[in-house]
Amino acid sequence: MVALVGYTNAGKSSLLNALTGARVPVRDRLFETLDTRTRSWELADGRQVVLSDTVGFVRKFPHHLAASFHATLEEAREADLLLHVVDTSKHEGEQEIRAVNAVLEEIGCLDRPTIYVLNKMDLVEDASEVELLRRLMGDVICTSAVTGRGLGELAQRVGGLLTDREEEMVVRAGVGNGRLVSWLHENGRVLGQRCYDETIELTVKLKPNLTGIVQSLGGDVTAPAD
Ligand SMILES: Nc1nc2c(ncn2[C@@H]2O[C@H](COP(=O)(O)OP(=O)(O)OP(=O)(O)O)[C@@H](O)[C@H]2O)c(=O)[nH]1
Ligand SMILES: [Mg+2]
Questions:
Q1: Which of 26, 88, 100, 151 to mutate to test the pocket of ligand 1 (most atoms within 8 A of CB)?
Q2: Any idea which of 44-53, 58-67, 95-104 has the lowest mean pLDDT?
Q3: What domain range includes position 205?
Q4: Which of 5, 106, 140, 191 might form a disulfide with 203, Cβ 3.0–4.6 angstroms?
């Protein structure tokens, strides 16, 4: 699960639309998005990740929007990876990043793996602003939801980070267990598969926290033999 977070008007919904072909309303005004939208995002290697758009963060949150904001925080809490979207065309980029990070800290998400997405690059005239943010944030990707710049690179980086968290394992099950086999193809990356006697054996890359599901579906999980 990947969540787009960031200051209001940074371009989160525009990026969700550009990356997934969704049609979430986008407008040049504060708090355009008031509920969480979730879409399936297919990375270059065919893997599907769940990408969520969230309500924009601000320094002082208006009280009547508290309920929407609360739902957004849940989304951020559940995400494996945060894409912190920044409006790079504004001079307040740095203050806005700090304001968003203060909220993330409050909800205990500041240590979540995060990619800083410097968006609206098509509007940037002052390259020194970008350099400053790059120095401050370290790992950044420059994008434009309008021209599509950087979106491929972003998908690659997300894929790389999620792959790092996967582990290789061997799953054995009865040959008739089609449910488990299709679950593994959907939720992991199957590197190899063979059948012997009445057993099917798959070598898969999978997030370790999913092994419980594999077992509940009748799979026997072991580490790969070297
Ligand atoms: N030029 C340019 N405009 C962009 C880009 N990304 C978003 N916008 C514009 O910025 C405005 C805000 O975009 P949204 O996608 O609604 O921003 P958001 O972060 O979802 O905003 P909230 O939902 O209000 O928090 C819209 O007018 C978009 O068309 C970009 O990369 N380049
Ligand atoms: Mg939005």
A1: 26
A2: 58-67
A3: 167-222
A4: 191
